[in-house]
Amino acid sequence: MVARLRSLVDFLYHMIKKFRLDKKVVLVTGGAGFLGNFFVDALLDMGATAIILDKSAEAITKTLQRFSKKQEQVSCHQLDIIDNDRIKQIVKEIVSAHGRIDILVNAAAFAMKDLNESVGDFFAKFEDYDQSLWQIALDVNLTGTFLITQAVGKVMKRQQKGVIVNVASDVAIISPDHRIYEPDEKNNYSGVPFNTPMSYSVAKAGILSFTRYLATYWAKDGIRVNSISPAGVYRNQDPNFVEQLSFRIPLGRMAKPEELKGPLVFLCSEASSFITGTNLIVDGGRTIW
User: Fold this and answer.
1) What is the predicted pLDDT for the residue at 187?
2) DSSP letter, residue 139
3) pLDDT tens-digit readout, 167-201
């Protein structure tokens, strides 16, 4: 009995160790955002040193306050993800301070708050969509990921090891169901004043191709590249909208933000050491319908 118990304890220890990220240096773009905070929280819980890159000074301040008890594990840099010169400077500073970069999590995404009123209607119909909005969405969601990955990839290639996790979306795989945004008089549903613009879906679909390309390109250099595609994440949205979307998900609800922690840690850790070029779909089954 004692021998069996010891064997079980050893097994659990080795399994848990596979998921640990102790002393790993992790960059998280968009780390001061809504989902970014949950990602950082998961990484810190597993022992990593998290370096947050985010455009919003206000969000960075709030994030540092949130993780004040783990301040030795957290640092932040204000960064516009499409500023290539600034990216190169920050990556150089990080390598100088830490000696390496072990993991890159590309979570930065274009948000409505980044727009000025003069830019136009982010949720306009496709027929009326402004080219400048299309370009901004592609720049942040796709080009920004390209630029930071290029800079960090050079570091990882010198190291001959590294892990990259790109955050895509379920609408990179399937088309958004436009009916969940539109009024439906038969079901007494008034609709919502937002939608999923084509630019977002196209950019996130590009992330999947980007992931596969780099997975094969950098495989010989010991760099693994994977992506996560979450479905809609609950964030106090309009209850009627939540009901409409949940109806289209086999598990019958939207994702909870903390439910993305496990998949992220898995792909960042040695638990997924033989996985590369994979898109981990975290959608409650939505994309299988």
Assistant:
1) 83
2) I
3) 999 999 999 999 999 999 888 899 999 999 999 99
Distance, in Å, from the CA atom of 183 to the CA atom of 179, rounded to the nearest integer, reads 8
CA 81 from centre of chain: 14
- CB proximity list for 88: less than 8 A, separation 6 or greater: 151
CATH of range 22-282; options 3.40.50.720, 3.90.1200.10, 3.40.190.10, 2.40.320.10: 3.40.50.720
- What pLDDT band is residue 118 in, cutting at 50, 70 and 90? very low
Which residues neighbour 215 within 8 Å (Cβ) at sequence distance 6 or greater?
A: 224, 225, 226, 276, 277, 278
Q: Which helix (DSSP H) or strand (DSSP E) does residue 89 occupy? A: helix 84-98
For residue 112, give both structure tokens.
């409505």
Q: What is the pTM of this model?
A: 0.93
